[in-house]
Amino acid sequence: MIPTIDLGPWLTGDAAARARVATTVDEALCAAGFLLVTGHGVDPGLRAAIREAARGFFLLPADAKQPYAVRVGGRGWLGPGAEANASAEGTPTPPDLKESWSFAAERPTGDPAVDAEWFLPNVWPSQVPGLRPLVTEYIARMRELSDRLLELLAAALGVAPDFFTRHTGHPTWGLNLNWYPGTEVVGEPAPGQFRIGPHTDFGTVTVLDRQQGKGGLQVHTDAGGWQDAPWHPDALTVNIGDLMARWTGDRWRSGRHRVLPPPADAPAEELMSLVWFYECDPGTRVVPLPAPVGRVAYEPVDSHTYLRAKLDAISVD
What is the pTM for the complete model shown? Predict the structure, then answer.
């Protein structure tokens, strides 16, 4: 149901090879909104180094982390109880069982109102100075990969190659380093409590570097319900978000997913995910593609009015 796609033929292949990749992508996104991708060129050593550095922060005592505490959408530490992702789809759940360090777009546009809301400086924990160069490199790789993925998505839809990337000249984005500790840190899960509750993402594409675990990612499809997401040691997990689903008139599904709580038979399991959320330029008018490509005639939306409402919905006051 969720295929593993080698990006090599898309990036360097001939027209026929590229067309085959685009067709496979279209089929997968219609069904579940998820892909695994290999051949992406993102160094596994870089990802491992980020995890090691970030873990050094997350293992600090709470009073050392508290000065960096922020709300959802901020730049810094999201501590225990800060988010309940299922709230975005109207499902009441206890707060998510995780901690995060959040980065976001920071290069100013020159518009004071836009910059004050979406392009603020990132914060870096002084206790782990090695994190900054690693994350800076990772962000550059994610920006490049995301635009290549958007070009692939345009081909899958049969639209102009820059149909999406013409709106990513100065985009917003987010990078969350999500730490999922065991029950010795978070306690026993309450009924209906997850590491991340059921939800869809909000932007265009999400690129996830995750670890395999019993308390890991599950994906929901109409055909199969909740199922463990496939995992490949060399692959990144890609899913589309709500804005992309609207843009395609729901041809593609906004991939619904959740992260299971620490498993009862492995309560000390600890995982960390690097989650890259890609969006578009502020003020982009998202107009759904018409039939026969699109399937639902949504009203156009302002991209960042939509995003702000979603971010507010998952924040636990």
Answer: 0.95
